[in-house]
Amino acid sequence: MFVAGVVAGALLASTAIARAETRLTIATVNNGDMIVMQRLSSHFERQHPDIRLNWVVLEENVLRQRVTTDIATRGGQFDILTIGTYEVPIWAKQGWLAPLDDLPAGYAVEDVLTPIREGLSHDGRLYALPFYGESSMTFYRKDLFDDAGLTMPAQPTYEQVTEFARTLHDPANQRYGICLRGKPGWGENMAFVSTMVNTFGGRWFDMEWNPAIDTPEWHRAVGTYIDLLRNYGPPGASSNGFNENLALFANGQCAMWIDATVAAGMLYNPGQSRVHDKVAFAQAPVGSWEKGNAWLWSWALGIPSTSQKADAARQFVTWATSADYVGLVAEEEGWVAVPPGTRASTYARAEYTAVAPFAEFVLAAIQSADPVKTTRDPKPYIGIQYAGIPEFQAIGTQVGQTIAAALTGQVTVEQALKSAQSATERTMRQAGYR
């Protein structure tokens, strides 16, 4: 009887422990830094034996659709969301995100770079914590440029980039003059195309919220974009987003690539890049207007207000975005692999700057990015590669699909922009802007 009682007591105790366990469901994007976060999260679970993590890792467009649907319908499927500077202010205003006030002193929120912190705030309160931050830049193969007698300026123009791409394009040897995002989506092809529109003198809307898509500036920007990819890009460019182009460049198949600064850590990493010793960088190209050519973004971790496990979720998001986590990645993966663009302390570390020749450049790009004064003519919205209004997610995705259709030759640029203008006018009327 005594033994049976001990066994029964042990079973009851183990059941109580199991019941006390909190399971968090985390939605994140399948980018390299997030894959590392998932792998290293075992450290967090060892430190918090009462918390277990359930990961839902998705392609970027799918992630955005899933988390938007879930939070807008208050579905409660996720306890932690990977979101960015577009969603956070809009969702916080709707009351969909839990504020992240009174963070632990050891978190050192003042260490977070000001543009990143402000982009993840609403009415002066943080609603998500940055996992990494980024602007955009031009990556290129220094060896190919040297062999061809070419010199990349610190600030190239799109005219120069076109000439470089023409010279270095070698499809017979599976090397392409330039790689750019072609996959449709407001955060995929349109993140890049929007910066081209800015620097060619265009904008999404005028000050009366009239769409400004079927304009000479958009025609020049989109025409240049499509000419570059059709003439000097890889086959199937309309299917390539950030991850696909990263793989192409790291494998030595792109002479140039204009994309997120976060890729620098992967391209300079000998364990991930065949061209780690051949890659160089410059600013994102400019057109006729020398602003708005480089974006500002942060992938961040937020907690939906519907979560019943907010305390445990808060413990994880502070752990994964802390300076201690940066140190853990450095220890496990090397300093070149640490999440960039969030903390001043990262850029103060000699260990980081010694292996990251791009560090000072990236820091300056993020600190100088201006989401307000971005376009040649005034605009009524905040954002560089997006317009910070709730309707933009649908608008940007629809326009992205139309431009992808022009890239594949299903429609002309003229037809694509006329269609995009009409559809966006209709959306803005229905939303009450007109």
Describe, in plain words, how this protein is organized in 3D.
The protein is 45% helix and 12% strand. By secondary structure, the chain is of the alpha+beta class. The protein has 2 domains: 2-134 and 296-356, Periplasmic binding protein-like II (D-Maltodextrin-Binding Protein, domain 2, 3-Layer(aba) Sandwich), CATH 3.40.190; 136-295 and 371-430, 3-Layer(aba) Sandwich (D-Maltodextrin-Binding Protein, domain 2). Strands 2-1-3-10-6 form a 5-stranded mixed β-sheet. A 3-stranded antiparallel β-sheet has the order 8-7-9. A two-stranded antiparallel sheet has the order 4-5. Helix 2 links the parallel strand 1 (22-29) and strand 2 (51-58). It is globular and about 60 Å long. Residues 1-19 have low confidence and may be disordered.
Secondary structure blueprint with pairings:
Layout: H1 2-20, E1 22-29, H2 32-47, E2 51-58, H3 60-72, E3 80-84, H4 87-93, H5 114-119, E4 121-122, E5 125-126, E6 129-134, E7 136-141, H6 142-148, H7 158-168, H8 189-199, H9 216-232, H10 242-250, E8 256-260, H11 263-267, E9 279-283, E10 297-302, H12 310-320, H13 323-333, H14 344-347, H15 350-355, H16 359-368, H17 392-407, H18 413-430
Parallel strand pairs: 1-2, 1-3
Antiparallel strand pairs: 3-10, 4-5, 6-10, 7-8, 7-9
Helix pairs in contact: 7-9, 8-9, 17-18
Cα-atom radius of gyration: 23 Å
The percent of residues in helical segments reads: 40-55%
- What is the string of SSEs from the N terminus onward? HEHEHEHHEEEEHHHHHEHEEHHHHHHH
Q: What is the number of E strands?
A: 10
Outline: globular
CATH C-level category of the largest domain: Alpha Beta
Strand order of the largest sheet: 2-1-3-10-6
CATH architecture of the largest domain: 3-Layer(aba) Sandwich
Distance between the termini: 80 Å
Strand content: 5-15%
CATH topology assignment of the largest domain: D-Maltodextrin-Binding Protein, domain 2
Number of helices: 18
- The number of distinct structural domains comes to 2
Structural class: alpha+beta
Q: Give a quick account of the main beta sheet: strands, pairing sense, barrel closure.
A: 5 strands, mixed
